[in-house]
Amino acid sequence: MLKPLLFATLAAIGNAVFVYGQRAAQPTPNPFLFTFAAVAVCAALFAGSALVYRSGSEAAYLSTNWKMATLSGIGFFLTFTGFFLLYTNFGAAQYTLYAVISILTTTIVVGVLILRETFNLYHMAAVVLAIAAIALFTIGNNQAGG
Predict the structure, then answer these.
(1) For 84-113, how does the pLDDT look when each residue is reduced to its tens digit (9 = 90+)?
(2) Domain ranges for the chain
(3) CA gap 92, 52 in Å, rounded
(4) Burial class (CB in 10 A: 0-12, 13-18, 19+), 100
(5) pLDDT tens-digit profile of 57-85?
(6) What burial class does residue 96 get, using C-beta atoms within 10 Å of its C-beta: 0-12 exposed, 13-18 middle, 19+ buried?
(7) Which residues of 10-28 are buried (b: 16+ CB within 10 A; e: fewer)?
(8) Where does residue 35 rank: exposed (0-12), middle (13-18), buried (19+ CB within 10 A)?
(9) d(Cα 101, Cα 104) in Å, to the nearest integer?
């Protein structure tokens, strides 16, 4: 029961470090340069990790799963491009909006509709609160800007 919380916290810390790095970096006229450099470092770290955990079946695994790996790579590209545009144009405080929309797209579309994972009354209540959070955040943005 504690593992999901720990893993989510690890991902959240990683995301915060990524956002800080992007926001603290000098602006560039090339919107993909910073993210490319960050992804290159990430790929190098993953390559090293994959070498440490070699099983001997990597080629077979990749030949079976290359389509899903490609799809996920496209997902990373969309995520990082969205992060760049969101944080560069509106700041790190807008992460709330991304996080809540991500809850809805990942939980409802991927988890429930596509993968048919368990979804109970408590999950539904969380989704309703997530939608309320988007509404409140949008109202807050309009109040701050006007």
Answers:
(1) 888 888 888 888 888 888 888 998 999 999
(2) 1-90, 91-146
(3) 34
(4) buried
(5) 999 999 999 999 999 999 999 999 998 88
(6) middle
(7) eeeeeeeebbeebeeeeee
(8) buried
(9) 5
